């Protein structure tokens, strides 16, 4: 009987370790935004406790998502890792008015880069939207009028994306 009880006691922590801790995700988002849950600039609500995301062996990768920085993309940076979007509480208008200046203007010629493990590809394109460094915008590749992609602004005149 004691052996069966001991087996159950050790099975519970193993089962809990199979999933990512939503509290750890909340803490990572709060640290990334610099604001607690529910505060202007912080996550709107805690991450849903019903989520069963695989345990992540590496630290979470966080970045702003959306041109208005209204979501935080949280992902497990391993092959076939998960990703979730955490909505952010809008900041008051005074703080929003202090948005970073645009690094790329609509219609501007930009260099589109795609980077992966051991390679970088580069191509000329045209920005279809304006944005600040870190924003995701639509860009048109070369002369193709119908084909556009979304890329993150890296610095003025350069947009790109990283492949896993």
Secondary-structure blueprint:
Elements (H helix, E strand, L loop, with lengths): L1 H16 L4 H12 L27 E5 L5 E5 L7 E5 L5 H4 L12 E8 L2 E9 L8 E6 L6 E8 L2 E5 L2
Parallel strand pairs: 4-8
Antiparallel strand pairs: 1-2, 2-3, 4-5, 5-6, 6-7, 7-8
Provide an overview of this structure.
The chain has 164 residues and is α+β, with helices and mostly antiparallel strands. It has 2 domains: 2-96, no CATH class; 109-162, SH3 type barrels, CATH 2.30.30. It contains 3 helices and 8 strands, in the order ααβββαβββββ. It has helices at residues 2-17, 22-33, 93-96, and strands spanning 61-65, 71-75, 83-87, 109-116, 119-127, 136-141, 148-155, 158-162. The strands form 2 sheets. Strands 4-5-6-7-8 form a 5-stranded mixed beta barrel. Strands 1-2-3 form a 3-stranded antiparallel β-sheet, covered by helices on one side. A hairpin with a 5-residue loop joins β1 (61-65) and β2. The radius of gyration is 20 Å and the shape is globular.
Which properties best describe this structure?
164 residues, alpha+beta, SH3 type barrels, 2 domains, five-stranded mixed beta barrel, three-stranded antiparallel sheet, SAF_FlgA, FlgA_N, Flagella basal body P-ring formation protein FlgA C-terminal domain-containing protein
């Amino acid at each position: 009987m004691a052996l069966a009880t001991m087996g159950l006691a050790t099975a519970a922590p193993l089962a809990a370790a199979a999933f990512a801790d939503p509290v750890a995700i909340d803490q990572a988002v709060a640290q990334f935004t610099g604001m607690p849950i529910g505060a202007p600039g912080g996550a709107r609500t805690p991450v849903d406790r019903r989520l069963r995301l695989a345990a992540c062996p590496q630290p979470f990768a966080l970045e702003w998502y959306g041109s208005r920085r209204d979501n935080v993309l949280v992902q497990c940076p391993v092959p076939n890792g998960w990703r979730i979007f955490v909505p952010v509480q809008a900041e008051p208008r005074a703080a929003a008015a202090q948005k970073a200046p645009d690094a790329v203007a609509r219609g501007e010629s930009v260099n589109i880069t795609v980077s992966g493990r051991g390679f970088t590809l580069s191509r000329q394109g045209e920005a279809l939207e304006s944005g600040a460094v870190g924003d995701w915008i639509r860009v048109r590749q070369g002369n193709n009028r119908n084909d556009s992609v979304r890329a993150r602004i890296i610095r003025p005149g350069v947009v790109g994306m990283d492949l896993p």
